[in-house]
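RETRY 2/3 - previous attempt timed out on the joint model. Re-submitting the same 295-residue input unchanged.
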Amino acid sequence: MLDEPPNVSDAPTAGAALPRLGDDHARERVEIELLLEGIFRVYGFDFRSYALASIRRRLLHRLREEGLGTLSGLQERVLHDPDCMERLLLDLTVNVTAMFRDPTFYLAFRENVVPLLRTYPFARIWHAGCSSGEEVYSMAILLQEEGLYDSTRIYATDINEVMLRRAKEGIYPLASMQEYTRNYLKAGGKRSFSEYYTAKYDAALFDPSLTRNVVFSQHNLVTDHSFSEFHVILCRNVMIYFDRKLQTRVHDLLYESLVMFGVLGLGNKETLRFTQHEAKYDKLDARERLYRKVT
Ligand SMILES: C[S@@+](CC[C@H](N)C(=O)[O-])C[C@H]1O[C@@H](n2cnc3c(N)ncnc32)[C@H](O)[C@@H]1O
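RETRY 2/3 succeeded.
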């Protein structure tokens, strides 16, 4: 099945249509849809509108890892075994991240958003889809250096609780620190990056004071509602995995959750161009995907 040509066992039963070119793909699509529907009904995670090509790749990866032959087999295991669901969830929610990822984004943030934040007595920042928290620690460091940390509350959310647990711990591989130090400096970092963590064996333990003003919580952008009004929302490298319709829905949610003149930051492969939300925002820095709500 799947990537292989049809064989005898794939032959349709009496009365069914004869096999046609593309039937394997049609069958595979049905299996994927049924699996995603089952996951939604049993666990409440809604992946039905994620981009199909990426979902398919991840399901096939899990299928191989579990030593299974069919997506229907994977469906059976996932629906009856929550541990298998947790493994699949880690595959489906691509969690790649880094500290000061795309450093020029943070540089632009310092230059264009920090002055706006200074005009508020108190600001709320939402990291939607924060993964294991590297983005959150980066923001906390930046705000501390700009003297804004104590007048800010950061809300860090993700669909994936395993990632949130890691985010709360703030322990990252020591081996990543060279890359993160380079990013930090390119992002306009003002101190020595090593001041923010303690090295222990092969781990870097980030200073707990960085999460003093951070609230970590599970939130699903597809099924949950807005939970506050924010002055800044960063939703970077999350919607890239959603289909058009879902992107529009999530943009509605982000728009509703921003105060007037609040700032939206997206990932560098994401844009508001050609979306129905484009007219609702001014470009603060289009290259760095920073936008300001204006209507
Ligand atoms: C590629 S990571 C991006 C992390 C970080 N924002 C960055 O840019 O480095 C995408 C994150 O989105 C999260 N995610 C995927 N679907 C989500 C949803 N429906 N609601 C909330 N978070 C979601 C994933 O769990 C993952 O941690």
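Residues 100 and 138 are 6 Å apart (CA to CA). Closing ticket.
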